[in-house]
TrEMBL record, chain A:
Record-given protein name: Aspartyl-tRNA(Asn) amidotransferase subunit C @ Glutamyl-tRNA(Gln) amidotransferase subunit C
Pfam families referenced in this protein's UniProt entry, alphabetically: GatC (PF02686)
Enzyme nomenclature, EC number: 6.3.5.6, 6.3.5.7
InterPro entries: Asp/Glu-ADT_sf_sub_c, GatC
Keyword field contains Ligase: yes
């Protein structure tokens, strides 16, 4: 199956990656080639096979609901691009 | 000269007082400085590292703490460290200082291993040649016109050129074993869940696993012993006892059934690789192993399933890099959406974008069943093939890669041919099994060839002892590239 330029633009929007028109062209070729490779798996009959999400077929363990982490806000915010009074700054979202 | 010694040998020399941590560390730091052309390291802090070595010497002398190793190891730049940048080969993390250490780093530290420097890698561990790094390609010490393999290319080049006695890498589809094969080293990918992934920047969470890249199976056992074990901070970490890998090393190969999948000795692979692997297998036979013909009939579809599953998981894992809480933020933007799109467009390289896009596509409405679910079913079939095979044999052997190290730039414009490099390594990750690559010879142009041994789940000890038995009667693993002797 081939991926068109508009497919690339749609997926890039979903993935929040800005792409230029000439890039969309190139990605549509690259991604189509990758899909051709991927479609080799269609040769395998998977009728009645349970999907395998993970190498360990076990239920994830639960932990007790107790507070173990200490507040590290200052440490985390020290590496942020923009903060003010303990808040992360982003462009205005609501008018 | 410390760089001509294995990690285990240096450990023994330290224990007998024949050398100090400071002498060893100074020597390797000097070698790193002299060999920057390889581009193996992205950050090194000489003073800080020397201080760690002096501390180790001090506690060995004054506190008689002889268990403390006091040895420097190189660390792939995918592991979070508070003291050095953690850039993951990406512009988007090129200014990132982690507020915490990865569990691997804490465990190494506890045993007295400290970080010699952070090594170059393919961006977010996506690549098989170390050419996708924001910090430029790494060169192969055996031939600097060739790639070192990837994604742990800096780790492998560093050990190969003896700029570090050993290194830590990660392996999602072959990223420890393939560079180990290309650089003439021993590279172990442990079972999924054996080593904690906490603090290891995630690429494909159901496949990622850390492991050592070393000069020998003995060195790999030493580092695995330190790194393996339960960690409550990784929800997939296994809560099972860690065996004594070092004392299991001398189990030998007597009556070990070595399964040879006919699919791995495919005539389409490089004939020199094929003949080298056949010679190595005869050596294993001489050591008492029994060769058994087996089949892994669906392993060829591994690449196809992998290039759905890994990008799908990556597209989700990498969505957190948005320029809000840490990492690169674009300098100009019109609104929030524009800020995300510009920061990510500037921050990610081409291969990472390709994989995020293909992953988002495979997960998007209308394609989920045909791609993602189908790939997970193929994954199950491949894992089942391994379970069937292990009824007939104890370990599986074959080549690690279909060719030796390829020229820089060769596969850059053709992602699909790059992906095909991982044909023998990817099925192992899909099944979550442990596997090792070890040096088995050289091609006529002097490039190393790697043999892969795959074991059943959690049987790292069996893989290591088989590799050790082979390394006791061969010296491929001791060869050093001419310019770095």
């Amino acid at each position: 199956m081939s991926i068109s330029k508009s497919d690339v633009e749609r997926v890039a929007r979903l993935a929040r990656i800005g792409i230029e028109p000439h890039e969309a062209e190139r990605y549509s070729i690259d991604l189509s080639n990758i899909l051709t490779l991927v479609e080799q798996m269609n040769k395998i009959d998977t009728e009645g096979i349970q999907p395998m999400a993970h190498p360990q077929d076990i239920t994830l363990r639960l932990r007790d609901d107790e507070v173990k982490e200490v507040n590290k806000r200052d440490k985390f915010q020290a590496i942020a691009p923009a903060v003010n009074q303990g808040l992360y700054l982003v462009p205005k979202v609501i008018d | 000269m410390p760089h001509r010694q294995s990690l285990s040998a240096l450990n023994r020399m330290l224990a007998t007082g024949g050398i100090s941590s400071t002498e060893i560390t100074t020597h390797f730091l000097d070698r790193i400085e002299k060999n920057q052309q390889l581009n193996a390291f992205v950050s090194v802090d000489r003073e800080q590292t020397l201080a760690r070595a002096q501390q180790a010497d001090h506690s060995r002398r004054n506190e008689r703490n002889l268990n403390l190793k006091g040895l420097p190891v190189a660390l792939k730049d995918i592991f979070c460290t508070q003291d050095l940048l953690t850039s993951c080969g990406s512009r988007i993390l090129s200014n990132f200082v982690s507020p915490y250490d990865a569990t691997v780093v804490e465990r190494l530290d506890k045993d007295g291993f400290f970080v010699l420097g952070k090594t170059n890698m393919d961006e977010f561990a996506m690549g098989s040649s170390n050419e996708s790094s924001y910090f430029g390609p790494v060169l192969n010490p055996w031939n600097t016109a060739r790639v070192p393999g990837g994604s742990s290319g800096g780790s492998a080049a560093a050990v190969s050129a003896r700029l570090a006695p050993a290194a830590i890498g990660t392996d999602t589809g072959g990223s420890i074993r393939q560079p180990a094969a290309f650089c003439g080293l021993t590279g172990l990918k442990p079972s999924y869940g054996r080593i904690s992934r906490y603090g290891m920047v995630a690429y494909a969470s159901s496949l990622d696993q850390a492991g050592p890249i070393t000069q020998s199976a003995e060195d790999a056992a030493l580092l695995l012993q330190t790194m393996a074990g339960f960690d409550s901070r990784d929800s997939t970490s296994l809560d099972t006892a860690v065996p004594d890998y070092l004392s299991a090393l001398n189990t030998g190969l007597e009556n070990v059934r070595l399964g040879i999948p006919k699919e791995f000795l495919d005539p389409s692979i490089d004939p020199e690789v094929l003949s080298t692997i056949e010679t190595a297998l005869q050596e294993f036979e001489k050591l008492g192993a029994k060769l058994v013909d087996i089949e892994l009939p669906n392993s060829g579809a591994g690449i196809a399933a992998y290039y759905v599953i890994a990008p799908a998981e990556a597209s989700s894992n990498l969505s957190k890099f948005d320029g809000v809480r840490y990492g690169h933020r674009a300098s100009e933007f019109s609104d929030l959406l524009d800020m995300y799109e510009k920061s990510r467009a500037e921050g990610f390289g081409d291969e990472v974008k390709r994989r995020i896009l293909i992953g988002s596509y495979a997960l998007s409405a209308g394609y989920y069943d045909a791609y993602y679910l189908k790939a997970q079913k193929v994954r199950r079939i491949i894992a089942n093939d391994f379970s069937q095979a292990f009824k007939q044999c104890d370990l599986i052997a074959g080549p690690t890669t279909p060719s030796t190290a390829f020229p820089l730039g060769k596969n850059l414009d053709d992602p699909v041919s790059m992906y095909l490099n991982d044909v023998f390594t990817v099925p192992v990750n899909l099944a979550g099994l442990p596997a090792i690559s070890l040096p088995a010879g050289f091609d006529q142009s002097g490039l190393p060839i790697g043999l892969q041994l795959i074991g059943p789940y959690l049987k790292e000890a069996n893989i290591l002892s088989a590799a050790h038995a082979y390394q006791k009667v061969t010296d491929w693993h001791q060869r050093i590239p001419g310019d770095y002797e």
